[in-house]
Amino acid sequence: QVQLVESGGGSVQTGGSLNLSCAASADSNYINCMGWFRQAPGKEREAVASIYKITGRSYYADSVKGRFTISQDRASNTILLQMNLLEPEDTAMYYCAAGWFLGTGLKDQSEYTAWGQGTQVTVSS
Predict the structure, then answer these.
(1) 2 in helix, strand or coil?
(2) C-beta neighbour count of 114 within 10 angstroms
């Protein structure tokens, strides 16, 4: 019953910044982790970052470490992805996901139970 809505996508030049937001609607009591995935045309979906609600612990893919920052607002059930120093390789459809996990770390897409429709990010050289 959880719905996820992404926003903030758009076009930016190489080296620019963009912020993505994901708001969870309905009952989110059974979610303890939210994260971001991305998928470019012809490529598989890959994990970007995730954050655990109770601890605030975050995890990142190696390709975005030092450039992207994930954060959360527990009261509004919202997560934010701050993307800096964007590169053409970051161009993709970005999806928000949520789930309930035992343990920690960056989880595989198959382990998430709720997904947003996605928001497009395009980085021009």
Answers:
(1) coil
(2) 19
Contact 58, 125 (CB under 8 A): no
Return the bridge partners of 61, or none: none
Residue with tokens 């030092």: 66
CA-nearest of 95, 109, 107 to 36 is 95
Cα–Cα distances (Å) from 63 to 40, 49, 91, in that order, read 14, 10, 13
| Bridging pattern class, strands 10-13 and 68-73 | unpaired
Which residues face 110 on adjacent strands? none
Q: Give the DSSP letter string of 85-103.
A: S--GGG-EEEEEEEE--SS
Query: What does the DSSP 8-state code read for residue 1?
Result: -
Report yes or no: 97 and 110 within 8 Å, Cβ to Cβ. Answer: no
Best CA proximity match to 84, nearest among 109, 65, 96, 67 = 67
pLDDT in tens, 5-49: 999 999 999 999 999 999 998 667 789 999 999 999 999 999 999
